[in-house]
Specification:
single chain; alpha+beta; Tumour Suppressor Smad4; 2 domains; about 25% helix
Length: about 220
């Protein structure tokens, strides 16, 4: 933990030097770059034995940077949330709960610098849901969603050669559920349409949607 705190201090020190040297405001791409690193740093193991990462992120900016970044509207927050979901899926990890990113301002912070505070919050914010299997059983998504793949530590295990070890995840959004392909070899389909890989934003699910992973299909069901 001390090493990580030092890394954060070094990052802020370098940013401060750059801000003084170039006098330019903070760019959203800089926030996204550090957010990707921060998202996978600290991991906890839940009661299922699954490694989880923080799901709530508060980004502290100077007043000038906050006004300029916030002026881009809600799209900047959506983009940052997508950045976090993408890197967590690529690392085959699971969020502790629904993902949120908040931009706040601090009058004492220098222009061009920022900090990111992260926390684990498993309070459910989406409607309870599950995946209905071919035999009629329903696997509950809980508050953090689940993983699908060939490896035994997935929540749903499909022991087929055309299914990747960690194939896909179903994750909670702000007020909805999402499915993301975890960089599988053969891809994931929703309602028979191929969805983007791990570098693409997750796909929003609706009640009754069919998720296809290899030879298996699951019906997304709201409770």
């Amino acid at each position: 933990m001390a090493l990580r705190a030092m890394e954060g201090q070094i990052e802020e020190f370098v940013e401060g030097l750059m801000a003084r040297a170039f006098g330019s405001g903070l760019q959203p791409v800089e926030i996204g770059r550090r957010l990707r690193r921060v998202a996978v740093r600290d991991r906890q193991v839940n009661v299922k034995g699954v490694a989880t990462v923080a799901n709530r992120f508060v980004i502290e900016l100077s007043p000038d940077d906050h006004d300029r970044v916030a002026a881009q509207g809600s799209s900047i927050v959506r983009d940052l949330v997508d950045e976090v979901r993408t890197v967590v899926a690529r690392e085959q990890l699971t969020f502790a709960g629904p993902v949120s990113v908040e931009l706040v301002e601090n009058a004492e912070r220098r222009r061009g610098t920022f900090s990111i505070e992260r926390s684990f919050d498993d309070a459910p914010a989406v409607q309870p849901a599950g995946l209905r299997l071919a035999d009629g059983r329903v696997v509950d998504l809980g508050s953090a969603g689940l993983r699908i793949g060939r490896h035994p530590d997935n929540d749903i295990v499909i022991d087929e050669s055309n299914v990747s070890r960690y194939h896909a995840q179903v994750l909670p959004g702000d007020d909805h559920w999402l499915v993301v392909d975890s960089g599988s070899t053969n891809g994931t389909r929703v309602n028979n349409v191929q969805i983007g890989g791990q570098s693409e934003p997750p796909v929003r699910l609706g009640d009754g949607d069919i998720i296809m992973v290899g030879p298996a299909s699951f019906t997304f069901t709201l409770h």
